[in-house]
Amino acid sequence: MSKKRITPEMVLEAYRKTNYIPIQNSFYHNDGNCACAIGAIYTMETGDRNEEEVQNYANKAFGVRYSHGFIAGFDGLKADSTTEDDYIDGYYDGKTVWKFIQGGSTNVNT
Question: What is the signed CA dihedral for 45, 93, 82, 86, rounded to 10 degrees?
Answer without folding.
Answer: 50
